Amino acid sequence: MSSTQKGRIEIQERNIHETYLDSYNKCEKNEDDRNHHKKYFSVAELERISDILLERQPCLPIFLLHMQKLTVKISVDLPDKGTIRDGTGIVMKVVHKRGELCPVKSCKFYRKRLHSWGEFTVATVNHIVGTDTEARNAAVDFFFDHGNTSSRKRKKQHKKVRRALGFHVVQNDNEDDEELDWSCFQCASHNEKLIQKVKNYLQIYKDIQKRLYTLYKNIIHGRDKLVVIISHPHGGPKKVSIGKITLPKESLKTVRDNQDWCRYYYQAATCNGSSGAPIFIAGQPIAGFGYWFGHPHNHSTYDEETLHSYSSVGVDHVV
Protein backbone atom coordinates (compact mmCIF):
# COMPACT_ATOMS: atom_id res chain seq x y z
CA MET A 1 0.00 0.00 0.00
CA SER A 2 1.42 3.36 -1.00
CA SER A 3 1.77 6.20 1.48
CA THR A 4 -0.13 8.37 -0.98
CA GLN A 5 -3.18 6.08 -0.98
CA LYS A 6 -6.18 7.80 0.54
CA GLY A 7 -8.25 6.21 3.28
CA ARG A 8 -11.03 7.38 5.54
CA ILE A 9 -9.82 9.51 8.41
CA GLU A 10 -11.66 8.53 11.56
CA ILE A 11 -12.70 11.81 13.07
CA GLN A 12 -16.10 12.19 14.65
CA GLU A 13 -17.80 15.44 13.63
CA ARG A 14 -21.11 15.90 15.37
CA ASN A 15 -23.68 18.59 15.85
CA ILE A 16 -23.24 20.25 19.24
CA HIS A 17 -26.47 18.63 20.43
CA GLU A 18 -25.79 15.18 18.98
CA THR A 19 -24.99 12.55 21.59
CA TYR A 20 -22.44 9.77 21.60
CA LEU A 21 -25.23 7.18 21.43
CA ASP A 22 -26.73 8.77 18.30
CA SER A 23 -23.42 8.41 16.50
CA TYR A 24 -22.75 4.96 17.94
CA ASN A 25 -26.10 3.62 16.74
CA LYS A 26 -25.64 5.07 13.23
CA CYS A 27 -22.10 3.72 12.78
CA GLU A 28 -21.58 2.51 9.19
CA LYS A 29 -19.06 -0.11 10.26
CA ASN A 30 -21.58 -1.70 12.59
CA GLU A 31 -24.15 -1.77 9.78
CA ASP A 32 -21.69 -3.65 7.57
CA ASP A 33 -20.55 -5.96 10.37
CA ARG A 34 -23.05 -6.41 13.19
CA ASN A 35 -20.27 -7.61 15.48
CA HIS A 36 -17.95 -4.64 14.91
CA HIS A 37 -18.71 -2.85 18.18
CA LYS A 38 -18.52 -6.18 20.02
CA LYS A 39 -14.84 -6.35 19.11
CA TYR A 40 -14.11 -3.57 21.60
CA PHE A 41 -13.22 -4.20 25.23
CA SER A 42 -14.11 -1.72 27.93
CA VAL A 43 -11.40 -0.45 30.26
CA ALA A 44 -12.83 -2.70 32.99
CA GLU A 45 -12.50 -5.71 30.68
CA LEU A 46 -8.75 -5.23 30.32
CA GLU A 47 -8.42 -7.49 33.34
CA ARG A 48 -10.44 -10.17 31.54
CA ILE A 49 -7.92 -10.37 28.72
CA SER A 50 -4.84 -10.04 30.91
CA ASP A 51 -4.17 -13.80 30.78
CA ILE A 52 -3.81 -13.61 27.00
CA LEU A 53 -1.44 -10.68 27.34
CA LEU A 54 0.57 -12.30 30.13
CA GLU A 55 1.39 -15.19 27.81
CA ARG A 56 3.23 -12.73 25.59
CA GLN A 57 5.08 -10.64 28.16
CA PRO A 58 4.55 -10.54 31.95
CA CYS A 59 4.61 -6.74 32.17
CA LEU A 60 2.30 -6.12 29.19
CA PRO A 61 -1.00 -5.85 31.17
CA ILE A 62 0.37 -3.21 33.55
CA PHE A 63 1.87 -1.34 30.60
CA LEU A 64 -1.50 -1.21 28.81
CA LEU A 65 -3.19 -0.16 32.05
CA HIS A 66 -0.98 2.93 32.17
CA MET A 67 -1.28 3.49 28.43
CA GLN A 68 -5.05 3.76 28.86
CA LYS A 69 -4.68 6.13 31.82
CA LEU A 70 -2.66 8.47 29.58
CA THR A 71 -5.15 8.20 26.69
CA VAL A 72 -7.42 11.24 26.41
CA LYS A 73 -10.51 12.29 24.51
CA ILE A 74 -10.05 15.41 22.35
CA SER A 75 -13.01 17.61 21.39
CA VAL A 76 -12.38 20.51 19.02
CA ASP A 77 -15.07 23.18 18.71
CA LEU A 78 -15.57 24.20 15.06
CA PRO A 79 -17.70 27.36 15.35
CA ASP A 80 -17.77 28.02 11.59
CA LYS A 81 -19.39 24.63 11.03
CA GLY A 82 -21.46 24.52 14.20
CA THR A 83 -19.95 21.12 14.98
CA ILE A 84 -17.51 19.45 17.35
CA ARG A 85 -14.69 17.22 16.10
CA ASP A 86 -13.90 14.30 18.40
CA GLY A 87 -10.65 12.35 18.38
CA THR A 88 -8.14 10.69 20.68
CA GLY A 89 -4.61 11.38 21.91
CA ILE A 90 -2.03 10.32 24.47
CA VAL A 91 -0.12 12.45 26.97
CA MET A 92 3.61 12.51 26.17
CA LYS A 93 4.89 15.02 28.70
CA VAL A 94 3.82 16.99 31.79
CA VAL A 95 5.51 20.12 33.12
CA HIS A 96 4.41 21.71 36.40
CA LYS A 97 4.54 25.47 35.86
CA ARG A 98 4.89 27.79 38.84
CA GLY A 99 4.92 31.57 38.70
CA GLU A 100 4.24 31.59 34.95
CA LEU A 101 1.27 33.19 33.22
CA CYS A 102 -1.65 30.92 32.36
CA PRO A 103 -1.83 30.76 28.52
CA VAL A 104 -5.50 29.73 28.13
CA LYS A 105 -7.68 32.70 27.16
CA SER A 106 -10.92 31.09 28.32
CA CYS A 107 -9.48 30.32 31.78
CA LYS A 108 -10.38 32.60 34.68
CA PHE A 109 -6.68 32.65 35.61
CA TYR A 110 -5.56 33.77 32.13
CA ARG A 111 -2.33 35.78 32.31
CA LYS A 112 -2.30 35.60 36.11
CA ARG A 113 0.56 34.33 38.24
CA LEU A 114 -1.60 33.53 41.25
CA HIS A 115 -1.85 29.83 40.48
CA SER A 116 0.48 27.11 39.29
CA TRP A 117 -0.65 25.04 36.35
CA GLY A 118 0.21 21.90 34.43
CA GLU A 119 1.35 21.94 30.81
CA PHE A 120 0.37 18.66 29.13
CA THR A 121 1.80 17.73 25.73
CA VAL A 122 -0.61 15.47 23.84
CA ALA A 123 0.29 13.41 20.75
CA THR A 124 -2.47 12.96 18.18
CA VAL A 125 -2.86 13.36 14.40
CA ASN A 126 -2.88 16.46 12.27
CA HIS A 127 -6.47 16.07 11.11
CA ILE A 128 -7.65 16.27 14.74
CA VAL A 129 -5.49 19.17 15.96
CA GLY A 130 -3.19 20.67 13.35
CA THR A 131 -3.24 24.44 13.93
CA ASP A 132 -3.02 26.82 16.87
CA THR A 133 -6.64 27.83 16.26
CA GLU A 134 -7.74 24.20 16.58
CA ALA A 135 -5.56 23.80 19.67
CA ARG A 136 -7.16 26.84 21.31
CA ASN A 137 -10.60 25.37 20.59
CA ALA A 138 -9.68 21.94 21.97
CA ALA A 139 -10.86 20.42 25.24
CA VAL A 140 -8.96 17.39 26.54
CA ASP A 141 -10.78 14.97 28.84
CA PHE A 142 -8.85 12.63 31.14
CA PHE A 143 -10.31 9.41 32.59
CA PHE A 144 -13.49 9.29 30.47
CA ASP A 145 -13.39 5.53 30.93
CA HIS A 146 -16.94 4.32 31.47
CA GLY A 147 -20.34 4.73 29.89
CA ASN A 148 -23.65 3.75 31.40
CA THR A 149 -27.26 4.10 30.34
CA SER A 150 -28.33 4.94 33.89
CA SER A 151 -28.29 8.73 34.27
CA ARG A 152 -27.40 8.47 37.96
CA LYS A 153 -24.43 6.19 37.31
CA ARG A 154 -23.40 8.29 34.32
CA LYS A 155 -23.36 11.42 36.47
CA LYS A 156 -21.21 9.65 39.07
CA GLN A 157 -18.77 8.43 36.41
CA HIS A 158 -18.47 11.89 34.84
CA LYS A 159 -17.38 13.30 38.18
CA LYS A 160 -14.12 11.39 37.71
CA VAL A 161 -13.42 13.06 34.36
CA ARG A 162 -10.88 15.91 34.44
CA ARG A 163 -10.53 18.50 31.68
CA ALA A 164 -7.60 20.52 30.34
CA LEU A 165 -7.85 23.26 27.70
CA GLY A 166 -5.64 23.51 24.63
CA PHE A 167 -3.57 26.53 23.64
CA HIS A 168 -0.71 25.71 21.24
CA VAL A 169 0.50 23.25 18.56
CA VAL A 170 4.08 22.26 19.31
CA GLN A 171 4.91 20.15 16.26
CA ASN A 172 3.32 18.50 13.27
CA ASP A 173 4.78 16.34 10.52
CA ASN A 174 2.77 17.74 7.64
CA GLU A 175 4.98 20.49 6.31
CA ASP A 176 5.97 18.53 3.21
CA ASP A 177 3.41 15.73 2.98
CA GLU A 178 0.01 16.01 4.62
CA GLU A 179 -0.35 12.23 4.76
CA LEU A 180 2.38 11.94 7.39
CA ASP A 181 -0.41 13.02 9.72
CA TRP A 182 1.11 13.42 13.19
CA SER A 183 0.98 16.35 15.57
CA CYS A 184 1.31 17.23 19.20
CA PHE A 185 -0.22 20.15 21.04
CA GLN A 186 -0.26 21.55 24.55
CA CYS A 187 -3.12 21.99 26.98
CA ALA A 188 -3.29 23.35 30.51
CA SER A 189 -5.01 22.56 33.80
CA HIS A 190 -4.80 24.10 37.28
CA ASN A 191 -5.82 20.82 38.94
CA GLU A 192 -2.83 19.93 41.14
CA LYS A 193 -3.99 16.36 41.74
CA LEU A 194 -4.38 15.77 38.01
CA ILE A 195 -0.88 17.11 37.32
CA GLN A 196 0.76 14.84 39.88
CA LYS A 197 -1.33 11.80 38.97
CA VAL A 198 -0.51 12.04 35.26
CA LYS A 199 3.19 12.65 35.98
CA ASN A 200 3.26 9.43 38.01
CA TYR A 201 1.42 7.44 35.32
CA LEU A 202 3.78 8.74 32.66
CA GLN A 203 6.89 7.80 34.61
CA ILE A 204 5.65 4.23 35.14
CA TYR A 205 4.60 4.01 31.49
CA LYS A 206 8.04 5.04 30.23
CA ASP A 207 9.83 2.70 32.65
CA ILE A 208 7.76 -0.31 31.53
CA GLN A 209 8.08 0.71 27.88
CA LYS A 210 11.85 0.37 28.21
CA ARG A 211 11.50 -2.96 30.00
CA LEU A 212 9.16 -4.29 27.31
CA TYR A 213 11.56 -3.28 24.58
CA THR A 214 14.41 -5.09 26.33
CA LEU A 215 12.28 -8.24 26.64
CA TYR A 216 11.17 -8.10 23.03
CA LYS A 217 14.74 -7.66 21.77
CA ASN A 218 15.15 -11.38 22.40
CA ILE A 219 12.30 -12.12 19.97
CA ILE A 220 12.66 -11.79 16.21
CA HIS A 221 10.94 -8.50 15.38
CA GLY A 222 7.72 -9.22 13.50
CA ARG A 223 7.08 -12.71 14.92
CA ASP A 224 4.52 -11.40 17.41
CA LYS A 225 2.08 -9.30 15.37
CA LEU A 226 -0.04 -8.07 18.30
CA VAL A 227 -1.51 -4.57 18.04
CA VAL A 228 -3.49 -2.85 20.82
CA ILE A 229 -5.33 0.44 20.23
CA ILE A 230 -6.99 2.52 22.95
CA SER A 231 -9.41 5.16 21.71
CA HIS A 232 -12.66 7.06 22.20
CA PRO A 233 -14.84 5.74 19.34
CA HIS A 234 -17.67 8.12 18.45
CA GLY A 235 -16.44 10.51 21.13
CA GLY A 236 -17.66 8.11 23.80
CA PRO A 237 -16.03 6.24 26.68
CA LYS A 238 -12.59 4.74 26.25
CA LYS A 239 -12.41 1.38 24.45
CA VAL A 240 -9.64 -1.14 23.83
CA SER A 241 -9.26 -3.09 20.59
CA ILE A 242 -6.86 -5.93 19.87
CA GLY A 243 -5.66 -6.76 16.38
CA LYS A 244 -2.57 -7.63 14.40
CA ILE A 245 -0.01 -6.23 12.00
CA THR A 246 -1.15 -7.17 8.49
CA LEU A 247 1.52 -5.76 6.16
CA PRO A 248 5.23 -4.96 6.46
CA LYS A 249 5.85 -1.52 7.89
CA GLU A 250 6.56 1.21 5.37
CA SER A 251 9.93 2.89 5.88
CA LEU A 252 9.81 6.42 4.51
CA LYS A 253 13.37 7.48 5.26
CA THR A 254 16.15 7.14 7.81
CA VAL A 255 16.43 10.33 9.82
CA ARG A 256 19.46 9.20 11.82
CA ASP A 257 21.55 6.05 11.91
CA ASN A 258 19.33 4.32 14.46
CA GLN A 259 15.97 5.95 13.67
CA ASP A 260 13.47 4.81 11.06
CA TRP A 261 10.73 7.23 9.96
CA CYS A 262 7.92 4.77 9.21
CA ARG A 263 4.25 3.81 9.15
CA TYR A 264 2.50 0.61 10.30
CA TYR A 265 -0.47 -1.26 8.75
CA TYR A 266 -2.85 -3.34 10.85
CA GLN A 267 -6.37 -4.63 11.40
CA ALA A 268 -8.14 -3.77 14.66
CA ALA A 269 -11.53 -2.35 15.59
CA THR A 270 -11.67 1.43 15.16
CA CYS A 271 -14.49 3.91 14.47
CA ASN A 272 -14.97 7.61 13.93
CA GLY A 273 -13.36 9.26 16.96
CA SER A 274 -10.44 6.78 17.01
CA SER A 275 -8.11 9.03 15.00
CA GLY A 276 -5.08 9.98 17.07
CA ALA A 277 -5.31 6.94 19.35
CA PRO A 278 -2.07 5.50 20.75
CA ILE A 279 -0.96 2.15 19.33
CA PHE A 280 0.99 -0.58 21.07
CA ILE A 281 2.90 -2.69 18.54
CA ALA A 282 4.53 -5.82 19.92
CA GLY A 283 8.28 -5.82 19.42
CA GLN A 284 8.35 -2.33 17.97
CA PRO A 285 11.72 -0.65 18.49
CA ILE A 286 11.18 1.83 21.30
CA ALA A 287 9.61 5.04 20.05
CA GLY A 288 10.53 7.36 22.90
CA PHE A 289 8.74 10.56 23.78
CA GLY A 290 10.55 13.29 21.91
CA TYR A 291 8.98 15.51 19.29
CA TRP A 292 10.38 15.17 15.78
CA PHE A 293 13.00 12.56 16.63
CA GLY A 294 11.56 9.62 18.50
CA HIS A 295 7.86 10.37 18.59
CA PRO A 296 5.34 7.50 18.72
CA HIS A 297 2.80 6.31 16.15
CA ASN A 298 -0.89 7.20 16.45
CA HIS A 299 -3.86 5.71 14.62
CA SER A 300 -4.57 7.69 11.47
CA THR A 301 -6.82 6.20 8.84
CA TYR A 302 -9.01 3.27 7.84
CA ASP A 303 -8.92 2.17 4.21
CA GLU A 304 -12.36 0.91 3.15
CA GLU A 305 -11.06 -0.86 0.04
CA THR A 306 -8.32 -2.96 1.65
CA LEU A 307 -9.89 -3.09 5.15
CA HIS A 308 -6.49 -2.18 6.61
CA SER A 309 -5.85 0.69 8.97
CA TYR A 310 -2.61 2.60 9.09
CA SER A 311 -0.79 4.78 11.54
CA SER A 312 0.59 8.26 11.38
CA VAL A 313 4.26 8.58 10.65
CA GLY A 314 6.37 7.73 13.67
CA VAL A 315 9.99 7.02 14.47
CA ASP A 316 11.26 3.58 15.43
CA HIS A 317 14.26 4.29 17.61
CA VAL A 318 16.51 1.26 18.04
CA VAL A 319 18.61 1.53 21.20
TrEMBL record:
Source organism of the structure: Biomphalaria glabrata (Bloodfluke planorb)
Domain of life: Eukaryota
Protein name: Peptidase S1 domain-containing protein
SUPFAM superfamilies (alphabetical): Trypsin-like serine proteases
